[in-house]
Amino acid sequence: MKPSRFCTTIHYSCLTYVIRHSEHSNPSSWNTTKINNNRDSERQTILIFKQTRCSGIKSVELTYASLFKACASLLALEEGRQIHVDCFKHGLDPDVYVRNTMIHFYGSCKKIIDARKVFDEMPHTNVVSWNTIISTFFRVSWFYESVEYFMKMRDVNIEPNGTTLVVMLSVCAELGNLTFGKCVHSRIILKRLELDCRLGTALVNMYAKCGALNYARLVFDKMPERNVWTWSAMIQGLAQHGVAKHAIALFNEMKNTSIQPNHVTFLGVICACSHAGYVEDGYRFFKEMKHVYGIKPRLTHYGAMVDVLGRTGHLIEAHNFILKMPIEPDPTVWRALLSACSVHSASDFDGIGEKVQKKLLELEPRWSPNLVMVANKYAEVCKWEDAARLRKSMRFKRLKKIAGESCIEVNGSTFRLLSGHDSHATCVDIYSLLDGLSLNMKINNL
Predict the structure, then answer these.
(1) Which residues pair with 406 in a beta bridge?
(2) Can you tell me the distance from the alpha carbon of 379 to that of 199, in angstroms, rounded to the nearest whole number?
(3) DSSP 16
(4) CA–CA gap between residue 267 and residue 258 (Å, rounded)
(5) Which whole number is the average pLDDT over 236-255?
(6) CA separation (Å) from 34 to 38, 45, 93, 111, 247?
(7) What 3-state class would DSSP assign to 283?
(8) Distance, CA of 265 to CA of 272 (rounded, Å)
(9) Which neighbouring-strand residues pair with 407?
(10) The pLDDT value given to residue 423
C-alpha cells in the first residue's frame, strides 16, 4: 500500500531529526537523505537542504546536483536561483556534474539565456554538457543554435554520442534540412552505432519529415526492432506527404504485430484520411481508437476529424461534430472549420461560417490571422463594409498581418523567404527569370 503524504512527512521529519542530532553527522549522511528524498518528493529535498543550511552543515557537489534536478522537476526557478548563489559562494559551481544539472534546471524553466551563460562559462565540459545545452535549445525551438553548438562541439574535439545524434536528427527534421540530416546519418554509420529503436526512429522521422519517404522506409525496414514510436513516425510521414493508402496499409500491418498503436499513431492515420478525403475511414479509426484500444481522444484528434469532414465539404456535419465534443474545442478546431468554410462554400458563410468566425474571434480576438481570414471571406462574398470594419479594427488595435513564410534548401543551406520581403541580393534577377518563365508558359498555351 502506498504511504500517505502525512506518513511520508513524518518519515522525513524523523530521519532529519536523527541525522541532525547524530554525533557523527556529516555531509555524506545529508546527501544520502537528499538523494532518497528526491525519489519520493522533490519538495522534501529542498526542505531538507534548508535545514542543513540552518544547522551549519557543509554541502558537497552531489548535494547541489540533486537540488538542481529537484528544482528542474518542480520548475522552481526562484529556489534554483538561490541554490545557484549558495553553490557559487561555496566554490562548488565549477564542477562539471553540477554545471550540467544547472544547465538542465535553467533549460527546464525556459531560461535559455541563463542556461547558455552557465555553459559558456564552464571551465571544463564533457559530452553530457554539450548534449544538455543542445537539447535545451531544441526544446524551445532554437534549432539554429542547436546546429551552432553541435559544430562547436566538433571544434573542441568532443565526440558526439548516440544521444547527440538523436537530438540533431530531430533538429534536421524540424528544419527540413535533408542534406544535414544525411551528414548526421553518415556519422552514425562511421561510428558503427547500433540502429536501436531510439536512433532508428529518429532517422525515420527525419527522412519522413524531409520528404525522403523512400529513405525513411528503407531505414524502417532495416531496423531489427521497432516500437510504437517507430511505426507512428513512418505512418505520420506518409500521411503528411499525402500517401494516404500506404499510411493506412502500414497501420493495418502494425495491427498484426504485438505493438499496440497509441494516440500519435491514430493521429497520423486520421490525418491520412483527411488528406485523401476518406470520411468513412476517418470515422472508423476514430471510433476504433476509443472503443477498441481504449485511447481517450485529445483535442488534436477532434481537430483532425473536423479537418476530415471540412476538407470534403461536410460543413454542417463538422459543425455538429464540434458541438457534440465532450471537451471544450480550442481555437485550432474552430479555425479548421472556418478554413473549410472559406474553401468550400461562399453562400454558406451567412450560416455556419458566420457562427464559426464569431466563436473564433471570441476565443482569439487579437490574433491577426483570424481577422485576416474573416476579412478575406467577407470580401469574397462582397460584404465590403464588414471587411473594411475588420481591417480598420486591426489598424486601431495595431495588429499586423503575419507575413507568409517558407523555407527552401539549396546545397545544404536553408533559405528563409518572407512574403513581400525582397531582401535577397539577386531578387531583381529572380523576378526577371520568373517573368520570362511566365511569358514562355503563356506562349506555349496559345
Answers:
(1) 417
(2) 50
(3) H
(4) 20
(5) 95
(6) 6, 5, 18, 25, 49
(7) helix
(8) 11
(9) 416
(10) 58
